[in-house]
Structure formats: C-alpha cells, structure tokens
Specification:
mainly beta, four-stranded antiparallel sheet, 9 strands, elongated
Length: about 110
C-alpha cells in the first residue's frame, strides 16, 4: 500500500504595523498540516537565526515557532523566513520587518 507524503503547510503571517527602535516584536510561524516529524527553522538574510542577534525562538508543541525580539534595533530590519521541513520536503514563507528610522538595501 502506497501512502502519499504530505508537505508542511505554513499559515501566512506578516507584520502589519510599524515598529520603532526599542519595541518588542514577535513573529508566528504556524505549520497547520503535514507529516510529522517536522522541523521548523528561521532564517534572517539567508542565515539561521541565533540568540546572539538578540532574538529568542520558542517552539510551542509540534507546530508553532515564535521568534521574539525584545528590543528591536535597526539591524533587525530585513526578511525573516520560516522553513518547515519533513520527509516529504520543505516549504518556506518570508515576511519583512522594517524598523522606523532604519534603511535596508533592497
């Protein structure tokens, strides 16, 4: 019997409001379906997020992953990509963070 593998599915997310230096920001990557086990990682400018950037990532249960920046700085401006991966493959979703008063190179 053949069992089809199910790719992860990320519910789209975005930062809808402006962010000022010193404010707190939290993203939410929720994988609503897909075969388990799945691995969720975050990239910033193409590199995996790490705590030395002032960003803490919390995984709640099997599917949501929440990176939090407790005090946003201009250096946090850019694209954040959630990557969900399982035996069927991977999918990603990217959103942009723009910190007021900062400039980013497109």
């Amino acid at each position: 019997m053949f069992v089809a593998l199910v790719l992860p599915h990320i519910i789209p997310f975005a930062l809808d409001e402006e962010v000022n230096t010193g404010e707190s920001v939290q993203l939410n990557c929720h994988v609503s379906k897909g075969d388990k086990p799945s691995k969720i990682t975050w990239n910033f400018h193409g590199e995996e997020l790490s705590s030395h950037m002032g960003i803490t990532t919390t995984k709640i249960g099997d599917r949501p992953s929440l990176p939090t920046i407790s005090s946003v700085m201009a250096a946090h401006s850019g694209n954040y990509t959630c990557i969900a991966q399982n035996a069927a493959g991977f999918i990603s979703y990217t959103t942009s963070l723009h910190v007021n008063g900062s400039s980013t190179v497109p």
